[in-house]
Amino acid sequence: MSIHRKSKFEINLMKQAGNIVALVHAAMKDAVKEGVTTKELDELAFKIIKENKADPTFLGYHGFPGTICASINEQVVHGIPSNDVILKNGDIISIDIGATYKGFVGDSAWTYAVGDISDDKKMLLKATEESLFAGLEHMKSNDMLENVAGAIEDVAKKYNLGIVRQYGGHGVGRQMHEDPFVFNYRTNNKLVLQKGMTIAIEPMLNLGCDEVTVADDDWTVSTADKKASAHFEHTVHVTDNGPEILTKLL
Ligand code: MG
Ligand code: MG
User: Fold this and answer.
1) CB 22 within 8 A of CB 249
2) Which of 31, 121, 122, 227 could crosslink 208 through cysteines, CB 3.0-4.6 Å?
3) Dist. CA 23 → ligand 1 center (Å)
4) Cis peptide before 81 (omega within 30 of 0)
5) Cβ contacts of 88 within 8 Å, gap of 6 or more
6) CA 233 / ligand 1 centre spacing (Å)
7) CA 121 → CA 73, 92, 111, 117, 129, distances in Å?
8) How far is the CA of 97 from the centre of ligand 1 (A)?
9) Ligand 2 ion: nearby residues, β-carbon < 5 Å
């Protein structure tokens, strides 16, 4: 495993990339409405990223055909934007966004409600967001990656939610996926966090079971029991004073 700790110069570029991702999320928050297609959201995201002189990181990544991943209800991650997917009242949609600016990547996902959602889905969104921030509290020098994972696991258990096992967080920098991999549950990981590490933390929690399946399109990951899933992610810089979220507005 090789973990590249970023210099101040590199962190500043990652902040720019993260700011662009945050700009897109701000636009998605407003654009997510009943009747909108996920393709329309994708086109809006592409436009904003390009206007900010960045590139959509996901587009073409292992052949992925979208700027965003748009995953509805029981879909966990990697949903392909489509003219055929029209948002309905009561849906939830997880939107994952990556932007590359001057060679550095920002990566952040959020799950949005479409109109009025069920109490179960409200709880799922609240709990998954809570688990992200519980994990982030441990993103400081000399803390352990295991404590990030454990904090996420504890929130999931508190709300009796499933935890997606096959996907997780990751180092991020010049590449979208760098070491280390970050499980969203305890694995007896011995990695000690150090200043300059930049890691995307991204719990994916489910109303039902842990298990997921991949669709025939080879991308869309859904829960095996078809119950709803949520996904919240930030790219975060480990500092001596705690977590510095990079995927936020500057
Ligand atoms: Mg992501
Ligand atoms: Mg990620």
Assistant:
1) yes
2) 227
3) 15
4) no
5) 34, 114, 115
6) 6
7) 9, 8, 10, 6, 12
8) 6
9) 107, 200
